[in-house]
Amino acid sequence: MLKKELRQKYKVLRQNLTATEIENLSLAIANEILKLPIWEKTYFHVFLSITEQKEVDTEFILHVLSGKDKEIVVSKSDFKTRDMTHFLLTDNTRIKKNEYNIPEPVDGLEVPATKIDVVFVPLLAFDKKGHRVGYGKGFYDKFLSECKPETIKIGLSFFEPEELISDVFESDVLLDYCVTPNGVSVFSV
Fold it and tell me: Is residue 140 marked as binding?
Protein backbone atom coordinates (compact mmCIF):
# COMPACT_ATOMS: atom_id res chain seq x y z
CA MET A 1 0.00 0.00 0.00
CA LEU A 2 1.01 3.61 -0.51
CA LYS A 3 1.89 5.83 2.46
CA LYS A 4 -1.05 8.15 1.73
CA GLU A 5 -3.52 5.25 1.83
CA LEU A 6 -1.94 3.87 5.00
CA ARG A 7 -2.12 7.28 6.71
CA GLN A 8 -5.85 7.47 5.99
CA LYS A 9 -6.51 3.86 7.04
CA TYR A 10 -4.66 4.05 10.36
CA LYS A 11 -5.95 7.49 11.32
CA VAL A 12 -9.48 6.06 11.04
CA LEU A 13 -8.53 2.91 12.97
CA ARG A 14 -7.02 5.02 15.76
CA GLN A 15 -9.99 7.40 15.91
CA ASN A 16 -12.24 4.38 16.51
CA LEU A 17 -10.34 3.40 19.66
CA THR A 18 -11.90 4.34 23.00
CA ALA A 19 -9.91 5.99 25.81
CA THR A 20 -10.01 2.70 27.74
CA GLU A 21 -8.72 0.74 24.75
CA ILE A 22 -5.87 3.24 24.25
CA GLU A 23 -4.93 2.95 27.93
CA ASN A 24 -4.99 -0.88 27.89
CA LEU A 25 -3.13 -1.18 24.58
CA SER A 26 -0.52 1.39 25.68
CA LEU A 27 0.06 -0.51 28.92
CA ALA A 28 0.48 -3.76 26.95
CA ILE A 29 3.05 -2.02 24.71
CA ALA A 30 4.98 -0.78 27.76
CA ASN A 31 5.04 -4.35 29.12
CA GLU A 32 6.37 -5.67 25.78
CA ILE A 33 9.14 -3.03 25.84
CA LEU A 34 10.46 -4.61 29.05
CA LYS A 35 11.46 -7.67 26.96
CA LEU A 36 13.78 -5.68 24.66
CA PRO A 37 17.58 -5.92 25.04
CA ILE A 38 17.98 -2.17 25.60
CA TRP A 39 18.25 -1.74 29.33
CA GLU A 40 22.03 -1.26 29.52
CA LYS A 41 21.59 1.98 27.53
CA THR A 42 21.43 5.41 29.21
CA TYR A 43 19.73 8.07 27.04
CA PHE A 44 16.17 7.26 25.93
CA HIS A 45 14.20 9.60 23.66
CA VAL A 46 10.44 9.41 24.10
CA PHE A 47 7.76 11.28 22.19
CA LEU A 48 5.05 12.88 24.29
CA SER A 49 1.72 11.62 23.01
CA ILE A 50 -0.72 13.77 21.08
CA THR A 51 -3.97 12.85 22.82
CA GLU A 52 -6.07 14.33 20.00
CA GLN A 53 -4.39 12.00 17.48
CA LYS A 54 -4.99 9.00 19.77
CA GLU A 55 -1.31 8.08 19.78
CA VAL A 56 0.19 5.37 21.95
CA ASP A 57 0.20 6.83 25.48
CA THR A 58 3.88 6.99 26.41
CA GLU A 59 3.16 7.82 30.06
CA PHE A 60 3.64 4.14 30.99
CA ILE A 61 7.01 4.06 29.20
CA LEU A 62 8.06 7.23 31.01
CA HIS A 63 7.30 5.50 34.33
CA VAL A 64 9.35 2.44 33.33
CA LEU A 65 12.32 4.58 32.28
CA SER A 66 12.11 6.69 35.40
CA GLY A 67 11.94 3.56 37.57
CA LYS A 68 15.08 2.26 35.87
CA ASP A 69 16.87 5.61 36.45
CA LYS A 70 17.32 6.27 32.73
CA GLU A 71 18.02 9.70 31.26
CA ILE A 72 14.80 10.67 29.44
CA VAL A 73 14.95 13.02 26.46
CA VAL A 74 11.97 14.82 24.90
CA SER A 75 11.85 17.14 21.90
CA LYS A 76 10.56 20.42 20.64
CA SER A 77 9.77 20.72 16.91
CA ASP A 78 10.42 23.70 14.66
CA PHE A 79 7.86 23.52 11.86
CA LYS A 80 9.72 26.07 9.71
CA THR A 81 13.03 24.18 9.60
CA ARG A 82 11.71 20.64 10.39
CA ASP A 83 14.37 20.47 13.12
CA MET A 84 13.86 18.92 16.53
CA THR A 85 15.68 20.20 19.60
CA HIS A 86 16.09 17.64 22.37
CA PHE A 87 15.93 18.33 26.10
CA LEU A 88 16.52 16.28 29.22
CA LEU A 89 13.22 15.61 31.01
CA THR A 90 13.59 16.56 34.68
CA ASP A 91 11.22 17.32 37.54
CA ASN A 92 11.59 21.00 36.61
CA THR A 93 10.80 20.62 32.88
CA ARG A 94 7.73 22.62 31.92
CA ILE A 95 5.64 20.98 29.19
CA LYS A 96 3.32 23.03 26.99
CA LYS A 97 1.24 22.03 23.94
CA ASN A 98 2.18 23.73 20.69
CA GLU A 99 -0.29 24.86 18.00
CA TYR A 100 -0.53 21.24 16.72
CA ASN A 101 -1.36 19.91 20.22
CA ILE A 102 2.09 18.34 20.56
CA PRO A 103 3.25 18.46 24.20
CA GLU A 104 6.77 19.94 24.20
CA PRO A 105 9.34 21.13 26.73
CA VAL A 106 9.42 24.91 27.04
CA ASP A 107 13.20 24.86 27.56
CA GLY A 108 15.81 23.02 29.56
CA LEU A 109 19.11 21.23 29.30
CA GLU A 110 19.74 20.48 25.62
CA VAL A 111 20.92 17.00 24.60
CA PRO A 112 22.60 16.45 21.20
CA ALA A 113 21.06 13.77 18.97
CA THR A 114 24.43 11.98 18.93
CA LYS A 115 24.14 11.28 22.66
CA ILE A 116 20.79 9.45 22.39
CA ASP A 117 20.98 5.64 22.64
CA VAL A 118 17.34 4.61 22.10
CA VAL A 119 14.50 6.40 20.30
CA PHE A 120 10.85 5.46 20.67
CA VAL A 121 9.35 6.49 17.33
CA PRO A 122 5.72 7.52 16.77
CA LEU A 123 4.08 6.14 13.65
CA LEU A 124 0.77 5.46 11.98
CA ALA A 125 1.75 2.19 10.29
CA PHE A 126 4.77 -0.03 9.65
CA ASP A 127 5.63 -2.97 7.44
CA LYS A 128 7.39 -6.31 7.91
CA LYS A 129 10.71 -4.83 6.70
CA GLY A 130 10.85 -2.06 9.31
CA HIS A 131 9.64 0.85 7.16
CA ARG A 132 7.21 3.20 8.85
CA VAL A 133 4.60 5.76 7.94
CA GLY A 134 4.39 8.88 10.06
CA TYR A 135 2.42 12.06 9.50
CA GLY A 136 4.54 12.89 6.45
CA LYS A 137 6.45 15.93 7.70
CA GLY A 138 9.84 14.17 7.87
CA PHE A 139 10.76 15.26 11.41
CA TYR A 140 11.74 11.80 12.61
CA ASP A 141 13.60 10.77 9.45
CA LYS A 142 15.71 13.92 9.79
CA PHE A 143 16.21 13.42 13.54
CA LEU A 144 17.06 9.71 13.24
CA SER A 145 19.61 10.44 10.50
CA GLU A 146 21.35 12.80 12.97
CA CYS A 147 21.66 10.08 15.62
CA LYS A 148 24.70 7.82 15.83
CA PRO A 149 24.44 4.68 13.62
CA GLU A 150 24.07 2.35 16.61
CA THR A 151 21.10 4.26 18.08
CA ILE A 152 18.24 1.78 18.53
CA LYS A 153 15.03 2.86 16.79
CA ILE A 154 11.81 1.40 18.22
CA GLY A 155 8.42 2.07 16.65
CA LEU A 156 5.27 1.92 18.78
CA SER A 157 2.00 0.78 17.20
CA PHE A 158 -1.44 -0.34 18.33
CA PHE A 159 -1.67 -2.41 15.14
CA GLU A 160 0.21 -5.26 13.49
CA PRO A 161 2.50 -4.69 10.45
CA GLU A 162 1.39 -4.27 6.88
CA GLU A 163 3.00 -6.62 4.38
CA LEU A 164 4.78 -3.84 2.47
CA ILE A 165 4.82 -0.05 2.22
CA SER A 166 5.34 0.37 -1.52
CA ASP A 167 6.53 3.97 -1.80
CA VAL A 168 9.48 4.16 0.60
CA PHE A 169 12.34 6.58 0.00
CA GLU A 170 16.09 6.07 0.35
CA SER A 171 16.08 8.74 3.05
CA ASP A 172 13.51 6.81 5.13
CA VAL A 173 15.21 5.47 8.26
CA LEU A 174 14.41 1.85 9.10
CA LEU A 175 13.24 0.76 12.54
CA ASP A 176 15.21 -1.82 14.51
CA TYR A 177 12.08 -2.97 16.37
CA CYS A 178 8.39 -2.20 16.44
CA VAL A 179 6.39 -2.94 19.57
CA THR A 180 2.67 -3.69 19.48
CA PRO A 181 0.39 -4.89 22.28
CA ASN A 182 0.89 -8.44 20.96
CA GLY A 183 4.69 -8.53 20.80
CA VAL A 184 7.85 -7.25 19.19
CA SER A 185 8.80 -7.23 15.50
CA VAL A 186 12.58 -7.40 15.02
CA PHE A 187 14.13 -5.93 11.88
CA SER A 188 17.81 -5.07 11.48
CA VAL A 189 19.18 -6.06 14.89
Answer: yes
**Is 67 within any annotated ligand binding site?**
no
DSSP letters for 2-44: -HHHHHHHHHHHHHT--HHHHHHHHHHHHHHHTTSS-TT--EE
Is residue 178 in a domain?
Answer: no
Q: Is 138 within any annotated ligand binding site?
A: yes
Check which CATH number belongs to the domain holding 126 and give it: 3.40.50.10420
User: Does the residue 77 lie in any domain?
Assistant: yes
Q: What is the pLDDT of residues 13-70, one digit of tens each?
A: 999 999 999 999 999 999 999 999 999 999 999 999 999 999 999 999 999 999 999 9
Quick check: pTM over 0.90?
yes
